[in-house]
Design goal:
Layout lengths: L12 E6 L2 E6 L14 E3 L4 E7 L4 H7 L10 H12 L11 E7 L4 E6 L8 E5 L2 E5 L2 H5 L10 H8 L15 E2 L4 E6 L2 E6 L14 H18 L7 E4 L6 H11 L5 E6 L9 H11 L3 E5 L24 H13 L4 E3 L4 H4 L6 H7 L3 H11 L6 H10 L3 H14 L8 H6 L8 H6 L3 H8 L1 H15 L4 E3 L5 H9 L6 E2 L2 E2 L1 H6 L6 H4 L8 H10 L2 H7 L21 H28 L11
Parallel strand pairs: 12-13, 12-15, 13-14, 15-16
Antiparallel strand pairs: 1-2, 3-4, 4-5, 5-6, 6-10, 7-8, 7-9, 10-11, 17-18
Length: 598
Amino acid sequence: MNSQLGLYGPDGYESVQRDGFLLRYHRMWTVPEEVGEAQPLHDAETDTWLAFYGRVDNRADLFADLNLTENVSVSDAALLQRYLKEFGDARLARIVGPFALVFYDARNKKLLAARDAMGGRQLFYHQSGSKLYMATHEMALAAHPDIGYQLNDEKRLRILCHLSENRPSSTLQNITPLFPGQQLEFHDGVLQAKTFYLPDSSKRLRGYSESELAAEYRRLLKRAVARRMRSIEPVGCMLSGGLDSIPMTIAAVQTSARPVTAYSWVFDEFADDDERLYSTELCEQLQIPQEFINCDRQWPQFDESTYTNPALCYATPFSAFNQALLARASQCGSRVLLSGVGGDLLYSDGNAVLLSLLRQGRLREALAELKFLWPQGNGVLRLIKNHLMVPLPKIRNRVILRRLRKNPAPAALSERARQVLQSPPHWLTAALTKAHRPQQFLNVMDSLMGDDIHAGKHMEAGYGVERRFPFRDRDLVEFALALPAEQLRNASVSRPIVMNAFRADLSERLKARNAKTKFHSVMDAGLEREQAYQHWFERSEPLWRKDVKNCYFSDTTVSEREKTALKWYCGYHGFWQAVCYNPLRIKLGLNDDRTNEK
């Protein structure tokens, strides 16, 4: 079990074993206060132990709660040890930052575990009678003989077909994840889980001018970035030409006392997908170095260089782009990278703009919004339904909850696969019922974002790099969820609040940027040119052959682009099974009738 965590702990590990419990911590020091710290931490007075994986971003608030002067030499874990000793689980919701923690009271044989709702740190567990096994990486549990390394068939299907799930689950059987913002208590063999934090989905910001909202957005984003600049080594930025990474990089340069290096994908062969025009202009304006990672030929080759995660049978054609960027950052000494991932989600669900403007009596802007919507082929009835009726409180929540209940299976799936899929009530149902923009709340708070960040940490660990995500900052997210709809999108202007907040920092070219690069050209060319996946797709043995209809790939009603994309994912699925899953099962001593053909 412990060997499975070694990838995540390049700075060593400690183990503590006492009567009735064992704790092991693999460390990667990235913030100055934790250098030299050996977890788990022990408090002799109460005989409690703490293992903390993450970062506390509101340290000043916690010191104030403890009536202590803020001390920069105290690590986040040491601060939380005092905090939990003083308040127990009563103030878990006060902790801001990405974290997963385990707090064990050895005297009373009581365990408390928790993960935050935003940051992608995860905790997985398995209960066997009076025993509880818990880890931040599923493979540490799967290696235990009582648990085993066996795929969760339903989750595997959802991953293959990019189908969301109504309740968070693990890719592996017999393993359960804590939900975002959830705590777990274990005492006398009894396991109890409850939510300690979710944003108030009904909160709205009213009565503020556009300039006031823009100023607050700027303040919150700059603070979110500053919180993530706390690092031993200089921080780098993953910079594209979009409206997430550009303001993030501006904030990083304005916040940091140390040099900031930008890392950018570039494409010489695919002009439509190359964003150098924007990113280079910004770097010249900010006077920061920029590293170009040419991704024209960065494509998974389905060989030893292709990324695999033993706990996740999933990758994308973009995985090789990320590998190349992480490798360059590691070579350049950037152990921490800021990423704009999650920014798109903050501005989703713009269907309520027209209704919001009409309610406020802003008729001229409502007319501009109407002129923008009309050419999109809505038609009068559809426009009224989607932009005036569905956004009404009593209708919008009902619509999204009904859609989540149905959660239709993709047309490609076989009947056997459809029977495997379940649609239990969504874990966010109560919050979505109250939400004034339920689709936005679902996009931002559902477990998929945390799953994505958590999965990415496996890749990052291989390069000794940690990505951090300012747009997953809790305070910024709460603000975005409460914004008036017209601040997310207004007529043809994408993200007006971002434009207003950073207008003084943007060139005229960047101000005119109003479209998102889709990377369709490089994706299509890669699928056509790089045929390594075909070998794995054509094999008869992979699990996915039971899941996809035999006739799907000859269906003339399905576009060739869709069929080719699914072939790629099926090919990767077979590749992962043969070179990662099957060999590891054999290594773990598990009987399996599958072969390891290549």
